Amino acid sequence: MSALLRQIPANIPQDIRKIRIENSHLTELPRGSFENVSALEYLWLNFNNITVMHIKSLEYLPALQELRLQGNKLSSVPWTAFQDTPTLKILDLKHNRLDVLPEHALRYLPNLTYLDLSSNQLTIISRDVFYNWPVYQRSQRTEGQIEAVSNAVLALHDNPWICDCRLRGFVQFIKSVGPPIILMNSYLTCSSPKFRTGKFFHEVELNSCMKPLTSALDTNLTVPAGLNITLTCFVQASPSPAVWWTYALKLLRAFNVTTEPISEETVRSELLIPAARPADAGNYTCTAANFLGNTSVAINLRVVAPWASTTPRGWAPVAPAEPGAHVEVRIAKQTVYGITLEWFAAAAAAAEPGETWYTLLVGRYDAAQKDTIYIGPGVNTYSVTDLLPATKYEVCVAVRNQAPRKGQCVVFVTGSDVSQMEQREKLIHIVVIVCAMVLAVPAGMYACTAEALPGCLARCPRACLRRRRGGQAQAAGSKESTLDSIPAGSEDGLCRPEDIHSTRRPPAREEPGKTRPPHRNSADLY
Question: Which residues form the Fibronectin type-III domain (predicted)?
Fold first, then answer.
C-alpha cells in the first residue's frame, strides 16, 4: 500500500493467492505480469495510474476469481484478455475512463456475478452487449424452469448517457431486465440532449434513428441590396445532425451560422448575410449529416438594388438627383492599410435618416468603373481595407442611386510597399488632414501632397509662395486665407517632374483684361 512501485514485483511467491497493490503508481499491466503465480485468486490493483492493460496481462491465471481495477485511468480494456480467466466472478472497473463497450465485450465472462462499470465515460452502448453475455443467455433459456441460475449484479450508473435514438435498444433492455440480472442502481439518468438532461430511463421514449431530411421554406429569394439577410433551412433527423453551410464550394464561417433544436427531431439552421451586396448572390447550400448519411438543400439568392431592377455601375445616375440630397463625408480613421469613412446626410436626405439608402463607389482613381456597394438605412460608416501599395484610390458616397456630388468623394494614395510603413502612413495622413478640412482647398494642394516626388514635397511651399506673389491677392477673411502657403488652383499641376531640374523662372505677369480662372473648391480635391 502506498509504495513507490512502477511495475509488478518479479519475486512474488508462486503459491500466493491474493495480491493487493494500491496507491502505488503502477502505470501499466504488461504481458505475463503474473506468469509465476498461477495459484492467484484475488487481484486488487485499485487507485493506481494504470492506463494500459496488455491483451496477455492476465495470462497464466486460470484460478483468478476477483479482479479489482477501481480508480485507475483505463480508457479501454482488452476484453479478449479474459479468455485466460474463465473462473472470474467479480470484475470492478468503476471510476475509470471507459467510453466504449464493444458488442462482444462480455462474451468471455460466463461466470460473472458482479460487474461494475459505474462512474466511467460511457455515452452510447448497444443492448447486444448484454444479449451476447452468457449470463443473460442462460437466464433466457431457463426462464420458467426450475433450474436455478446465480444472480449477477450489474452497476451502470453515473455515466453521461446520451439519450437519443442510438440508446433506444439499451434503454429498452434496462426497462425489461430482471433477475437473475440485478441492477445495483436502476435509476439511470440522461445527461444529454438538453431537453432530456436529468430524466430517468423509465421516463423517456426514444424513437428509431432517421437519416437527415433537409428543407427550406423558399429556395429562391430576391432581396434588395444593403439589407441583413437570413437564410433558413430545417432539418429533421435522429440523432441530431451536424449542420453546415457552403457557398461556391467554400465552407462558410461558423460565427454567421446559428443552429438550434425546435423539437425533438427537428433543428433550424440560420445563415446571416449582413448588408447583402450583389456579389453575395448565388447558391447557398445547407447540409446536414449524422451516422446514417447526409442530405442538403440549396437556396438561390438574388440581390438587386432597392430602387432599380438593374444595378448601376460607374458614375452615371439612373434617376435624376434629388434637390438638396447632399452628403457630408469625412475620414474618421486611417491606418497604413486603409481608411474608415463616415458620412452625414444633410438637407432633404436627412429628413428620413432611418429610410435613407447610400451608394458607395470604391476603386482606383483612374478606373472607368468602380465597385458599387449598397449601404442600408442606419449605417453611416464603411472601412476600405486590403489596398494595393503605391496606388491612388477614390471613394465616393451618394444618396440612393444619384451620382456623387461635389464634396462627396475622398482621394488617397497608399505607400510604395508594406516595408515603408512610416512613409505610407505620412502620405495617407497628409491627404486625410486635407480631406477632413471644411475648407475650399484648391486642387493644387492634392497634387502637391499626394502626387509629387518626395523631393518635391519640400519645394512645394516655396513654389506655392512664388505663384501666390504673381497672382492676384485673395480677399481678406476668405476661407482660403487660413492656408496662405497653399497656391491658387491652376490647370497645370504643381512641381511637375520637368520643373525639378529646370532653372527658376520669374513669376508671369497677368495680361491686362485677362480674367483669372475661377478658384476650384473642395469638391475638386475630393
Answer: 325-417
